[in-house]
Design brief:
The complex is a heterodimer of chains A (about 350) and B (about 350). By secondary structure, chain A is of the alpha/beta class. Chain A is about 35% helix and about 20% strand. In chain A, helix 4 runs parallel beside helix 7, helix 5 crosses helix 7 (about 170-180) and helix 7 packs parallel to helix 8 (about 200-215). The chains are: A alpha/beta (about 350), B alpha/beta (about 350).
Chain lengths: ~350, ~350
């Protein structure tokens, strides 16, 4: 451990670094371990895709990064370093000053995350003036500029509209304008296109990609749609049961994934770019309850290959190990077995 | 209950006619929702033309997929087929019988044959009823006697859809989303329907669960000779499950064709745009493929564009598109399209469309 620590100090610090993040919620039924030991890092100008099913802890992670968990209900431990500043240990006031300016978020449902009583403009102006000491007129002009930037027609008129006067796609654009109004260096998009139609989704994904290039910000995109991450991400983190099960470069994850859960996700998805298959290859069972995460590997009850380990999967939690530069997997299977299974059993059926 | 108990015993699937026979025929179907002003004296100031002239047929044992963006009228179409909504105009013929305007009372026995799977597995099950009583309700409502009692019939159904029959006495909240959707499917199957209208059956489910339910629907179709109308916005799910696919835009069917023909060579520009907008889960094709990005949003169905409704967003649109409505023309065997300038079409397509539209 000490050796690792020593090297970590020498290497230049990444822009965002999450170390052993744990977010637990005590409830009457037991402790919910939503995020249980998550570590990753991200540089400026890069996009990280976090993929997982509902209840895998991806949204809880994103709220944790923004310091949005109520300390009374949530137990947060670990470290989150954003550009040299630690978030978990900071006071609510310090985090509030960073939020919006350093980091901001695009939520899934723009209708319920905007205030229906205030105009779109008023909401962007408020966010901008919180962090910048400018007059209302200047802030208003900035809001119009931002709306124009995200492609809203007639921004000088639409700035005085209420959220309900916008269509779903335009609301999501306005939300992006608001999130970007203070030029954040880290942008977190939590299922930014799930509520949108496919043609509007394509517009929004293009917009996020263009804006990222323009601002050179770090982007985390959280989604269950592997198509969206394949289009947008540089790196992918696959989450299951509150932990990272596989992490790697987008090409690696799609072309030589090594975790049986990643295989399952790829097999579950009907695809337009391949011949029509007779059967989908679903993962059996359903995701674990985060109160009773299985003792060993959280995925073992659903894993088709768990018996290859003589019961190790049920008792021992697999560590996240680096198998090639930048590609990490948490699985008990032998490397050779995994390669053989992927080449012989899984890939031919996809 | 005043009706005398019906003595039908739930037998093996009642054959829905020979394979391939037309089971459902829809022609000129319209639904206009009136828009009214005034609190005391209501006057109609307009109409939302949710569905405005849709034709298709579904053959027994086959699956029709209806795709389109929100507001295109696909759900309204599904609700009219199941007669949960009264059509404004048009005809719905089920097994040779016109059911367009039959009364609720006449419709009731027919509901055994036409069933629906709903989108949201959370709101479509009564939280105060046990699974046994939810899945058994169709037997009670239709006074259908079962061979070994309702309980046995329900347990068999639970087994068919892959749930534990022991869970008969549990409540919906004790199940996960995927399991709840299975409960809904079991209820749908109870009376061995011939036609099932499935409105976004998997869109509320997680990816891995989605695949389980899609496979289940396919297995059930083979086992019980079911005919499906599947309504979904996910083009890849529809491609996987359907034999025939209809693409809707603003209340109109713009393209209707056999699965392979439509996905391999989409003819309507809207279909082309929809397909190119689907993100491909393969990073190596990123940036490599040609994309068509539609600008703006779908226009309001209150005041849809004249003639071809897609011409305001279409990159191929010419003057004629805003003046003459393109008719549905079968340009390839089993593949119809309503467009003046179709893509991937045989060379004489444009003149054939013009002739059909009466402008040649």
């Amino acid at each position: 451990m000490t050796d690792e620590d020593a090297t970590a100090v020498q290497a230049p610090k990444p822009f965002l670094e999450v170390r052993d993040l744990r977010i637990h919620f005590p409830t009457d039924d037991g402790l919910v371990r939503s995020v249980d030991g998550l570590s990753f890092s991200l540089e400026r100008g890069r996009t990280l895709g976090i993929v997982g099913e509902s209840g895998s802890g991806k949204s809880v992670t994103s709220l944790g990064l923004l310091g949005l968990h109520n300390r009374k209900n949530a137990r947060v431990s670990g470290e989150i370093w954003l550009d040299g500043q630690e978030i978990v240990g900071s006071s609510a006031d310090q985090v509030r000053r960073m939020r919006g300016r350093k980091m901001s978020m695009i939520f899934q449902d723009p209708l319920s995350s905007m205030h229906p009583f205030y105009t779109i403009g008023a909401q962007i102006i408020e966010a901008y003036r919180l962090h910048n000491d400018v007059s209302k007129q200047v802030a208003r002009k900035h809001a119009i500029d931002m709306l124009d930037r995200v492609g809203i027609p007639q921004p000088d008129r639409r700035v005085d509209d209420y959220p309900h006067q916008f269509s779903g796609g335009m609301r999501q654009r306005a939300m992006i304008a608001m999130a970007l109004s203070c030029d954040p260096e880290l942008l977190i998009a939590d299922e930014p296109t799930t509520a949108l139609d496919v043609t509007v989704q394509a517009q929004i994904l293009d917009l996020i990609r263009d804006l990222q290039q323009e601002f050179n910000s770090a982007v985390i995109i959280i989604t269950h749609d592997l198509g969206v991450v394949a289009e947008l991400s540089d790196d992918i983190l696959v989450m299951y049961g509150g932990r990272c099960v596989e992490y790697g470069d987008v090409e690696e994850i799609f072309h030589s994934p090594e975790h049986p859960y990643t295989w399952g996700l790829l097999g579950s998805m009907p695809r337009l770019d391949r011949d029509r298959s007779e059967r989908l290859l679903p993962i059996k069972g359903s995701p674990p309850s985060l109160i009773n995460v299985p003792q060993g590997c959280a995925f073992s009850p659903r894993c088709a290959y768990a018996e290859l380990n003589q019961g190790r999967s049920e008792t021992e939690r697999p560590e996240l190990r680096e198998i090639s530069p930048g590609h990490r997997v948490a699985c008990h299977l032998d490397r050779e077995d995994r390669r053989r299974l992927w080449d012989e059993e899984v890939r031919p059926k996809l | 209950m005043v009706t005398t108990p019906d003595t039908t015993v739930v037998e093996e699937p009642r054959p829905a006619g020979p394979e391939g026979e037309v089971l459902l025929e829809v022609s000129g179907l319209r639904k206009h929702f009136p828009v009214t002003r005034g609190a005391v004296v209501k006057r109609q100031v307009g109409a939302v033309k949710a569905v405005d002239g849709v034709d298709f047929t579904v053959r027994a044992g086959r699956t029709l997929g209806l795709v389109g963006e929100s507001g295109c009228g696909k759900t309204t179409t599904g609700r009219m087929i199941t007669r949960l909504l009264e059509p404004t105009d048009g005809r719905i013929v089920f097994e040779g019988r016109d059911i367009t305007h039959v009364s609720q009372g006449t419709m009731r026995p027919l509901r055994r044959d036409i069933q629906m799977i709903f989108q949201d597995p959370y709101s479509s099950l009564n939280p105060r009823k046990t699974v046994g009583s939810i899945v058994g309700a169709p037997f009670r409502l239709q006074n259908v006697a079962t061979e070994a009692g309702v309980k046995k019939a329900v347990q068999d159904l639970l087994d068919v859809v892959g749930l534990n029959p022991e869970h008969y006495n549990r409540y919906p909240h004790e199940f996960s989303g995927g399991q709840r959707q299975r409960i809904g499917i079991a209820r749908t199957l109870a009376l061995r329907p011939k036609l099932i209208v499935a409105d976004e059956p998997v869109s509320a489910l997680d990816v891995s669960i989605q695949a389980q339910v899609v496979n289940l629907l396919e297995d059930l179709q083979d086992e019980f000779h079911l005919t499906y109308v599947v309504i979904a916005h996910d083009l890849s799910v529809v491609r996987h499950i359907s034999d025939q696919v209809g693409v809707m835009y603003l209340g109109k069917m713009v393209e209707l064709g056999d699965n392979e023909s439509l996905y391999d060579g989409p003819m309507h520009p809207y279909t082309v745009a929809l397909l190119s907008a689907v993100p491909v889960p393969d990073p190596s094709v990123r940036g490599g493929r040609e994309r068509i990005r539609l600008q703006g949003d779908v226009p309001s169905p209150l005041n849809p564009p004249p003639a071809c409704r897609f011409h305001t967003r279409c990159w191929k649109a010419q003057e004629v598109c805003g003046q003459v409505e393109p008719p549905m023309v079968e340009l390839k065997p089993g593949h119809q399209v309503a467009c003046h300038f179709p893509e991937n079409a045989p060379p004489d397509a444009e003149s054939r469309v013009a002739k059909a539209a009466g402008i040649a």
